[in-house]
Amino acid sequence: MQxxxxxxxxxxxxxxxxxxxxxxxxxxxxxLLRAWHVKKELREWSDNRRNEEQHILDAGSGFGxxxxxxxxxxxxxxxxxxxxxxxxxxxxxxxMRAIGRQNILFKIADLVKYREPETYDLILSVDVMxxxxxxxxxxxxxxxxxxxGGMLLISTPSDQGGSDVHGDDETSFIEEHVRDGYNIKEIxxxxxxxxxxKVQARYSYGKPGQISWRLSMKYxxxxxxxxKIFFVLLPFYYLVTFPVSMVLNWMDVKGSHPSGTGLIVKAxx
Length: 269
Description:
Elements: H1 3-14, H2 18-31, H3 33-46, E1 55-59, H4 65-73, E2 78-83, H5 86-98, E3 104-108, E4 120-126, H6 135-145, E5 146-157, H7 184-193, E6 198-204, H8 207-226, H9 230-254, E7 262-268
Parallel strand pairs: 1-2, 1-4, 2-3, 4-5
Antiparallel strand pairs: 5-7, 6-7
């Protein structure tokens, strides 16, 4: 399935006013289980840091929802958000200026080449690495760009059915992916090769999360990909499925999973 055209349509709809953009971010935070897991890790990282100046890189910022969330956690944090897509970078800069967020800058950058030695206290990379073939080179750039003691936080699909691939004869649900998912030991080893001194990885999207993802994301996207008329029907669809998805997301974040289709990875310099 071509995911980018759907994202462009959604972006066009919600970019019309700052209010709609905020609504869009709130919807993403509610519907995307990865946002629940990432925000949980960010809350833990932010303990005792909210009143301190911190320099943060959102590496592969997309729509900018995580940069928006981080900038609201502390006005003392300085956040650079980078992405390869010029249109999204421009849209995000306009929105952040419109709402008066002065501690943020979005710019175009290729993570395979981007490196700012010992600049950042935190690097966030959410659903990015499955799109980049030269992953070890990117990990080396992340390591070089972190200050001593800095942390890298990654959310990415696993090889336990990530991208909704469950066999060798299946292809990724999202065609833009260059890999279907990471083996948990593989990504830990690659991060250590890149120079990280400590790595922790855990599964997300366990059984509850997998059901929630299908209800809240996969089926709606398949419908929208088939016909734009489903934009009209989506509110009624979510009226039924939304409460179920919220309970499943809560269960996934609170639980510990022996396997899962997603990975949450933390690595320290």
